[in-house]
Amino acid sequence: MEAYILDWLNLLLRWLHVITAIAWIGSSFYFVWLDNSLTRPDDPELLEKGVGGELWAVHGGGFYNPQKYLLAPKTLPQNLHWFFWESYSTWLSGFALFSVLYLFNAGTFLVDKHVLDMSATTAVFAALAYLAAGWLVYDAICRLFGDKPGGDRVVGVLVTLYVVAAVWVACHVFSGRAAFLMTGASLATVMSANVLFWIIPGQRKMVASMRAGQSPDPIHGKRGKQRSVHNTYFTLPVIFAMLSNHYSMTYSAGNNWLVLLLIMLAGVLIRQFFVLKHKGVIKWQYPAAAVVILAGVAAWIVPKSALQPAPPPSQQNAPAVSFAQVQHVIETRCIQCHAAKPTLMPVPGKGILLDSKDGVLQHAQQIYQQAVVQKAMPLGNMTNITDDERALLGKWFEAGAKGE
């Protein structure tokens, strides 16, 4: 029952997280597109009111005419919509999901003793410190250099260098799967903190000035715009990092920190293409470079087993693997997590039980996929399964996964 309840909690939190993330990313992408698609109005009345850009659009059978003021309208309407709940809800639901899946099972999901031998408690504090450090370093860079001449370029270079260092640290402290997720969570924390500490407070100060009959300070709009631009370039790398836990060939590869950096770079290049496209500038070299990078990474990390030639006939005719041999490997390497009463986890992993013959036969496909093809299991290879044992499981499955 505990495993069933946790599965439902996982499902509902993940669903909520995806819903709020779609709302946040959707509104973020829309406003970046809108800013880059505005044109200077021809109507003298609009110019007189202070409108610096407008756009005509048709959607759902209606016509829309959004307008952006150079600073602010002369009079502010009472009904003013704010965009912040999407950001806060995404971060809160994501942190709750991260807590349920990773922090409460730190010894299993955060720690890989082959990467760094640390206790579960140490891993939890390291994970929280990693999230906090990402925001503190990024914010310090923006505070120190963001308002200076050429600040955008300097901030961009320094933030890039920090991301490189942060990815390297994560992949040398946490398990590969957790390191990729932690990197995405760190950037997502920066994005949400930008909204919480800079974008919304700046907008509130501008509104308060106008309500008081004062001219708003344009620095608030400038800083908010700067942080918003950063957020849009973080988005695609964050999405990949969050999805990466389903694709072990990325986080389990050698030099996985470089794999993550290259894939995130491809995401930034793709985003840059769309940002420029919204301005009417088509630069195909950006997505082309992204495709080259992704193809290069895919070729680089291809599993050695996929490149090995077919075994000679003498080996093909070798004695078949018996179920007793398979069961020995399962009992030695797998049931610590996949049993009715696992010893390495509070509940069976994914609810999959391998402590009986029927369970092994029922989940033969998952065993082959996770332990042989992707080599994602055991997590962090905490039970020290060998390549020969993986090959044995593979030969058994390819021969029909028989129970004798």
Task: Explain what the structure shows.
- The chain has helices at 2-37, 44-49, 85-101, 106-109, 120-145, 151-171, 176-211, 218-243, 248-251, 256-278, 285-300, 304-307, 313-316, 323-333, 357-362, 364-373, 387-398; strands spanning 51-54, 57-59, 62-64, 67-69.
- With 404 residues, the protein is mainly α.
- A two-stranded antiparallel sheet has the order 1-4. A two-stranded antiparallel ribbon has the order 2-3.
- A hairpin with a 2-residue loop joins strand 2 (57-59) and strand 3 (62-64).
- Helix 6 (151-171) packs antiparallel against helix 7 and helix 7 (176-211) runs antiparallel to helix 8 (218-243).
Order of secondary-structure elements: HHEEEEHHHHHHHHHHHHHHH
**How is the largest sheet built, in terms of strand order?**
1-4
**Strand content range:** under 5%
Radius of gyration based on Cα positions? 26 Å
Structural class: mainly alpha
Helix % is: 55-70%
How many beta-strand elements?
Answer: 4
Mean pLDDT score: 89
Sum up the overall morphology in one term: elongated
What's the story with the biggest beta sheet? 2 strands, antiparallel
Distance between the ends: 32 Å
Q: Low-confidence stretches at least 5 residues in length (pLDDT < 50)?
A: none
- Subunit arrangement of the protein: single chain
How many helices does DSSP assign?
17
